[in-house]
Amino acid sequence: MNATNGLNRRDLLKAAGAAGALGTVWPLSAGLSPAQAREAAGALGSTYDAAPFTLGVASGDPRPTSVVLWTRLAPEPFAEPGEQALPEVAEVRWVVAEDRALRRVVARGTVPASATLAHSVHVPVTGLRPGRTYWYAFSALGRTSRTGRTRTAPAGRVPSVRFATANCQNYPQGYYAALRGIARERLDFVIHLGDYIYEYGPEGGDSVRDNNGPMIYTLADYRKRHALYKGDPSLRAAHAAHPWFLTWDDHEVANDYSGTGGGAPFLQRRAAAYQAWYEHLPHRDAGDGEGDGASAALPDPEIHRVRRWGDLLELAVLDLRQYRSAQNLPDGTILGAGQKAWLKRTVDRAPDSWHIWANSIMLSQLRGSPGGRFMFTDQWDGFLAERKEVLEHVRTSGLEDLVVLTGDWHSAFVDDIRPDYDNPESPVIGTEFTAHSVTSSAYDAQWNAANGPLMGRANPHLQYFEGNRYGYDVYEVTPERFSTHMRVIEDRRDPDSPVSTLTTFHVDRGTVGAYEDPATRNSPAQYRRD
After folding, report:
1. 3-class DSSP state for residue 80?
2. Residues 6 or more apart whose Cβ sits within 8 Å of residue 155
3. Fewer Cβ atoms within 10 A, N terminus or C terminus of the chain?
4. 3-class SS at 20?
5. Whole-model pTM?
6. CA-to-CA distance for 316 and 285, rounded, in angstroms?
7. Helix (H) or strand (E) segment spanning residue 237
8. Among candidate residues 127, 57, 60, the one with its CA nearest the CA of residue 94
9. How do residues 102-149 score in pLDDT, each as one tens digit?
10. CA 409, CA 61: separation in Å to the nearest integer?
11. Which residues lie below 8 Å from residue 11, measured CB to CB, with a gap of 6+?
12. Neighbours of 244 (CB within 10 A)
């Protein structure tokens, strides 16, 4: 299909939507065949790799001698496993090499792809060399996938690391130009901070590419939603370019959910969402170990883990959904007893390095006005006693050089971390960087202009707020300094939108608190602390 016809078809689809005919033309509408759903997705700009590797390839959870490789056989992205032109168990071959042409092979093998997990495979490749770049590919049914690039974690002394975070990529609300930017960056790895998909029904309004599908509840629903998101070529490119670490937030399942709440219907929904998430991402499951990579058993997702990038950086990935209680309880928990004990042990055993927490929702206190209420108690603000307990443990342990990386808010914040936010004498023990979203809508410019100063006055630890843009953050870390570059796109309605750096903040090793780079401190923002 040429570009002109594609554009005309998109206009026709939007016109049909305005006329109330969305039920017959949008990708996740009821009654569409898998082929019709794919054609409708294509009219919104989605593309897919060649069958059967339509959803692309990915790698994740890099360790010094191991990395997980992922793909899923799906000749028809929107078809259920039983509807695919695939056997119940298909044989998938994989290869890892030191060159892009895959000639200097260092590992290869075969793994079964079972319909039980939608013919997805998760291969924990072992025996690799630390701190090395590798290329990989899969083959099955006489076809070969695209070639992916990955990298193992280094061991020993490391002079620098460069990585990015992404979060909140609502498909209807924009194209993934930010992920296109990530794919083109020179990075060691990517951390996704959650809201990889959204579970909502039709969004309407000014949505760029609304799928018009209903709210999702079943395993088939979640699989189709993941397949739709994977149709954005920039998402597939970002996965193929770098290894990813992964955590989740709420929209992978349901808005503001508590992992320990709800009756049987919700628990079934959550199990379906967790399985579909695993089937579509390069996650090293707790039960996978580093064995033969067989993917026949149902996953038991364990998100929280500690990974080290040589002697330079220790990364703690947090799970703030699966074990949490309800909000605003005196003894409420956002971590769960087991994960909280694990996090405290991690703090106690921390090496002399930078300490990074991958944190899906805001850790810092956020009041809407001086002396006013918390803005959102779905954040750590809904778990006051536990936040104070954990941060006081950080303080008394003597842990230094703590940087928390956060998503969820669809806006950028820079905050001082204090054990007791209501005590002005409470010491600063770290910095939290909250990143812009990939596409998910933020508050409008008028709200940001009015409320940025209010939030600044209400939260003395808040250093910076900017909510009018979309993008991702890139971090450059050396033994002396941690730098955060806020990358932003011009227009989320443009899949080829250019990327620029809005501003840069630094944290110096051994010194608490962040400071803005003099070269960018006059960039637009709705609040800066004097």
Report:
1. coil
2. 64, 130, 131, 310
3. C
4. coil
5. 0.94
6. 16
7. helix 233-241
8. 57
9. 999 999 999 999 999 999 999 999 999 999 999 999 999 999 999 999
10. 25
11. none
12. 25
